Amino acid sequence: MTILAIDSSAKAASVCIANEEKIIGEFFINTSLTHSQTLMPMTEQLLKNTEMTIDEVDAIAVNAGPGSFTGVRIGVAAAKGLAFPKNLPCVSVSTLESMAYNLLGTDCVVCAVMDARCSQVYNAMFRIKGETVERLTDDRALSLSDLLLEFKQTDERILIVGDGAEITYDFLKNEASNAVLAPKNRRTQTASSVALAAFQKLFEGKTQTAAELMPIYLRLPQAQRELNARLRNN
After folding, report:
1. Residue 85 in contact with residue 114, Cβ under 8 Å?
2. Which of 24, 32, 39, 68 has the greatest count of CB atoms below 10 A from its CB?
3. Residue 84 and residue 77: Cα distance in Å, rounded?
4. Residue percentage of the chain with pLDDT more than 90
5. C-alpha neighbours within 13 Å on the C-beta side of residue 208
């Protein structure tokens, strides 16, 4: 089983081809270029450099959210575009869950966080035991103050990953001694971790058609929230 996996849920973007035995190839870029400029060229170049074609891919996986509204939409659109012509199954992966797979091989609790602004983070908690990832909470949007209360309920060491890791750690560190900032090379979501998470879902039969694949937002975009507020005030 060969998966082509995509992540464009935040500033960085990456594409990976993997099978059950290994990561065959991965491109990662973290620059000011937009995902619309980089994602499909990276995919085309990765297929070329691995001497593969889309005909050799069995499924398309993507971080479908939460994350940047624009980034998530671009990633999901790319996955749908790749899957439609060959009717390939799609695997929708939680961005937060994929980041937990960065820490496979360790025994720890992972706090995956993405900056949701407005003093909130997108968050989910996971327990890692060797090669097993256990979800402890649903994906959610919550305040850093509420997250601090959860850290205070346990003495267990908790590793923080994600593009919101630094702001979260800075907020927690003085009052939660069990908060640990994950190393930089394991902190950011990557397409290879999307692939690892997707294999488990494939084995469980959790796939979608390209038509069914949709972005997953934990809250409305800022523009929509502002519009709703104006409508309520009027």
Report:
1. no
2. 39
3. 11
4. 90
5. 16
In whole angstroms, how far apart are CA 52 and each of 4, 17, 49, 187? 11, 9, 8, 29
Strand positions, DSSP E, the chain:
2-7, 13-19, 23-29, 59-65, 90-94, 106-117, 120-130, 132-135, 140-143, 158-161, 179-181
CA atoms of 217 and 68, how far apart (whole Å): 9
Radius of gyration of the chain (CA): 18
Pairing of strands 13-19, 23-29: antiparallel
Question: Global pTM?
Answer: 0.91
H or E stretch including 49? Answer: helix 35-49
User: Which residue matches tokens 């590793």?
Assistant: 159
pLDDT in tens, 56-88: 999 999 999 999 999 999 999 999 999 999 999
Residue 73, both tokens: 């939409």
3-state SS assignment for residue 129? strand
How many residues can be counted in the chain? 234
174 phi and psi angles, rounded to 5 deg: -75, -20
- Give CA–CA dist 17/15, Å, rounded: 7
| Three-state secondary structure call for residue 6 | strand
